[in-house]
């Protein structure tokens, strides 16, 4: 049978990061990095000498289109990235926990089955020894089995007739 020892269970539980987790981590990182870049550009645009329309950051055009500065847009991006990270990590952690519990239950079932097989083998060995001991005794010493008695049929009771109404 498949032998699942505790060391094998520990090896199974240390599985690698799945492809889906990697994708979410990379996308979340890119989104958070974009938020940080937007915040830095917002600081640069605010403190760059000269007119805001003439600087290279383009915050004036962005602010006219989005009605947000670079800094606030960066903060929103970071908050969205944090929310996505929390949801994704929670989902993957729950999946990993159920997989670990499933592996543990399977190992426990296999352990119980293997123990019951050992007990069954021992019981069969004892039964074989008892059978040999019974065969070794002479037939005269063996107790006689009682024959079951057949039930006698019960006589039918006569039914009392009801008087007829005339």
Structure, described:
The protein has one domain (18-136). Helix content is 67%, strand content 0%. The protein is an all-alpha fold. Helix 1 (6-13) runs antiparallel to helix 4 and helix 2 packs antiparallel against helix 4. The radius of gyration is 42 Å and the shape is elongated. The N and C termini lie far apart (86 Å). The chain has helices at residues 6-13, 19-47, 59-66, 70-136.
Keywords for this entry:
single chain; 166 residues; mainly alpha; 4 helices
SSE topology:
Blueprint: H1 6-13, H2 19-47, H3 59-66, H4 70-136
SS field, number of helical segments: 4
Largest sheet: none
Mean pLDDT: 79
| Radius of gyration, taken over Cα atoms and rounded to an integer in Å | 42 Å
Helix content: 55-70%
Q: Quaternary state, please? A: single chain
What ranges have pLDDT less than 50 throughout 5 or more consecutive residues? none
Number of strands: 0
Spatial shape: elongated
Terminal CA distance: 86 Å
Question: Please, how many domains?
Answer: 1
How would you classify the helix and strand content by structural class? mainly alpha
Order of helices and strands: HHHH
Query: Beta-strand level of the residues, as a percent range?
Result: under 5%
Summarize the structure.
This protein has 166 residues and is mostly helical. It has helices spanning 6-13, 19-47, 59-66, 70-136.
